[in-house]
Amino acid sequence: MSDPVILTQQANDLTFDDVWEEISWRGLVQVSTDPTELRELLAGDPITFYCGFDPTAPSLHLGNLVQLLLMRRLQLAGHHPLGLVGGSTGLIGDPRPTAERTLNTKDVVGQWVGYLQAQVSRFLSGEGDNAVTLVNNLDWTAPLSAIDFLRDIGKYFRVGTMLKKDAVSARLNSDAGISYTEFSYQVLQGMDFLELYRSYDCVLQTGGSDQWGNLTSGTDLIRKAEGESVHAIGTPLITNSDGTKFGKSEGNAVWLDPTLTSPYAFYQFWLNTDDADVISRLKVFTFLTRAEIEELEAAVATEPFKRLAQRTLAVAVTGLVHGRPATEAAIQAAHALFGQGDLADLDEATLEAALRELPNTTTAPHATVVQLLVDTGLTGSLSEARRAISQGGVYLNNVKVSDEAETIENAVLPGGVAVLRRGKKTLAGVFVQ
């Protein structure tokens, strides 16, 4: 396989018998209701399905991207997606395993609903017979009185069953306990599925496997209230190599909004994927075919030092999320920072974003390179900095520094920045006031 190129085409792989076989091969099904019935359902006439996204932050993140790409694959197979942004459930938030959420104001949540709806719309087609339909659960929750909610919905839920849900059980056994507000979240999500079943004939909900208790609250409610069987798919969680989850609750989210995670940082995240994880990431996050992924898997086994799979992954997912121009800028920045391109050719925003991801310092124009090596942590002392310069291992904007007295004043790039490098790979950013 040649060097990766930025692709925009999205299609399911026709070498699979059906979409169920493909999403299973890609590892997108961690848990589900009856697999045999689901396969028949997805291979038959078009169905309506949904996934919900709560506006508990101003942007979606990588965990949400898994859902969006599963939805896109089902849409490409002819099925009709409903993109639910939870204007009501976002006011409450699903229970975290450790502590109660901080509730955001109605105005903030309302603003975030708009942000998330725009993001959902970018990944799902708005054209054709199965164009995405955006829905907001505030539309059917807000008019509902507490009495009607308890009589019409609450009567179908058994407290014993609710207590057994993983998130609820974890909280009950913690020092924080759980409020009635968050305890009721699963009832609200179950009601969403019932409403969409009644209004759109929606028969499938997708979500993260950590949401399985909430997903099945909807399938159970529809079975009790309507006497019908519907389905749910829980996708695997994306984790670090040490098994920890990515997400805003853990403070390590990789956001889809470029103002929260820059395209450069996004590109670097994928580029740094471990060999052990890169093939599974390619299956989940790209539209590469099975044959292309198997070719990359062979490359990982035989020539891992070339990191072709990681470069392909980084290009594919950054292009999918941020588009071709931003991806090309991120690649150009990565090359230029390591001396394989002209730093002056980079746009200011991309270069600044790249340097923010590195060890960096803010300084005055007259600062010496020796001092900046210490300030950025590239050396541990001034004497070490001088020795590094004398040995020819220090570069300022990819130009070798030979004078210990050299200052940064004449090397400032547009935007008031400079790039300091020690050796081939150790970089730091300098922001000049």
Short description, anyone?
The chain has 433 residues and is α/β, with parallel strands linked by helices.
List the helices and strands and how they pair.
Blueprint: H1 19-25, E1 31-32, H2 35-43, E2 48-53, H3 62-76, E3 80-85, H4 106-123, E4 133-136, H5 138-141, H6 146-152, H7 159-163, H8 166-172, H9 180-183, H10 185-200, E5 202-208, H11 212-226, E6 231-235, H12 263-271, H13 275-285, H14 290-302, H15 308-322, H16 324-337, H17 348-356, E7 360-363, H18 369-375, H19 382-390, E8 394-396, E9 399-400, E10 417-422, E11 426-432
Parallel strand pairs: 2-3, 2-5, 3-4, 5-6, 7-11
Antiparallel strand pairs: 1-6, 8-9, 8-10, 10-11
What features would you describe in this structure?
- With 433 residues, the chain is of the alpha/beta class.
- Among the domains are: 193 residues, Rossmann fold (3-Layer(aba) Sandwich), CATH 3.40.50; 76 residues, Structural Genomics Hypothetical 15.5 Kd Protein In mrcA-pckA Intergenic Region, Chain A (Roll).
- Helix content is 45%, strand content 12%.
- The chain is built from 19 helices and 11 strands.
- The strands form 2 sheets. A 6-stranded mixed beta sheet has the order 1-6-5-2-3-4, with helices on both faces.
- β5, α11 and β6 form a beta-alpha-beta unit.
- α13 packs antiparallel against α14 and α15 packs across α16.
- It is elongated and about 80 Å long.
- The two termini are 46 Å apart.
- The model has no long low-confidence stretch (mean pLDDT 93).
